[in-house]
């Protein structure tokens, strides 16, 4: 039997590939995905980084040897988890490495409106000096973060020096550091009317699809700022546009949309009080540096126990 292969995404730094080789010794062959041939597919046991084309081809092999995928993303709904169950394949996510860069992007979207940065950029393009502009700040603002996972917790702590009151929303009502108040998701609609800023960080599940719809926007405080950096499927985009047009939502920042890339004919592009960001809030030049400790710890455990521990996905619920 040929040696198993660890297939490494082409974007992974070469120094990490060398570290993997040192950890596994002669037990595995370590190769970049781009260097693999079709004949190598049946020998792949570990994927460091998900390639949909390669993954599907491997899953379809009758002699599939794949036993663990380390995804490069926090969300893993794009990976066919039924195939994982059928193949008894482990899956781990990149959860926990997005907090800082996403928090900075969320603050940037908020400041684009509160500090009139978006308007100033547009005015600069027209060589127009417009002052004063209506501005505000975060002091005493009620900021609701829907989703109190690792990203939400990082954002909550970063917001504290701005003297905002931070309200977290989760299913169980569990408390976490950095939040001034926690409410259960079942009580969400009853707690919207006094929030100045709402930030969604929810994953995609059946319960979150179309969550932000007309009913939701009708309950928010008029003039609210709405930011979605979770999943585009959570927002009914036509309902959001309508809420923006009637002033119920003063400004919306969207890092994610239902269709990506956003089609050129999407009405979101033309709404003056909507900022469309091309799904880059999780991006950073430090990304793979932050991903490595997750993979390294899991790899060390896998080598001895054929098991993983960090960010292991429960395939019954998808997260």
UniProtKB/TrEMBL annotation:
Protein's UniProt keywords contain GTP-binding: no
Single GO MF annotation: NAD binding
UniProt keyword Metal-binding, yes or no: no
Entry keyword set: NAD, Oxidoreductase
Alphabetical list of Gene3D superfamilies matching this protein: NAD(P)-binding Rossmann-like Domain
Taxonomic superkingdom: Bacteria
Stored Pfam families: 2-Hacid_dh_C (PF02826)
Name of the molecule in the record: Uncharacterized protein
């Amino acid at each position: 039997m040929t040696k198993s292969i660890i297939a490494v995404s082409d974007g992974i730094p070469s120094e990490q590939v060398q570290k993997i080789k040192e950890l596994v010794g002669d037990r595995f062959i370590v190769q970049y995905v781009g260097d693999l041939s079709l004949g190598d597919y049946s020998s792949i046991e570990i994927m460091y980084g998900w390639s949909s084309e390669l993954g599907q081809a491997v899953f379809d092999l009758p002699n599939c040897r794949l036993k663990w995928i380390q995804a490069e993303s926090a969300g893993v709904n794009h990976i066919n988890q039924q195939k994982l169950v059928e193949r008894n394949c482990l899956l781990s996510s990149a959860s926990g490495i997005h907090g800082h860069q996403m928090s900075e992007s969320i603050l940037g979207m908020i400041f684009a409106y509160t500090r009139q940065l978006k308007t100033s950029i547009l005015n600069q393009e027209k060589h127009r000096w417009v002052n004063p502009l209506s501005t505000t700040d975060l002091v005493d603002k009620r900021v609701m973060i829907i989703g109190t996972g690792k990203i939400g917790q990082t954002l909550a702590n970063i917001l504290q020096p701005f003297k905002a009151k931070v309200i977290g929303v989760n299913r169980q009502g569990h408390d976490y550091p950095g939040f001034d108040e926690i409410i259960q998701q079942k009580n969400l609609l009853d707690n919207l009317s006094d929030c100045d800023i709402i930030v969604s960080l929810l994953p995609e599940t059946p319960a979150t699809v179309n969550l932000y719809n007309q009913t939701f926007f009708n309950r928010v405080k008029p003039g609210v700022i709405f930011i979605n950096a979770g999943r585009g499927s959570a927002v009914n985009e036509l309902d959001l546009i309508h809420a923006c047009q009637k002033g119920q939502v003063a400004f919306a920042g969207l890092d994610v949309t239902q269709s990506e890339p956003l089609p050129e004919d999407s009405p979101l592009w033309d709404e003056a009080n909507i900022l469309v960001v091309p799904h880059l809030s999780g991006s950073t030049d430090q990304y793979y540096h932050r991903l490595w400790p997750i993979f390294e710890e899991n790899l060390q455990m896998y080598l001895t126990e054929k098991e993983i521990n960090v960010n292991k996905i429960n395939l019954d619920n998808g997260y």
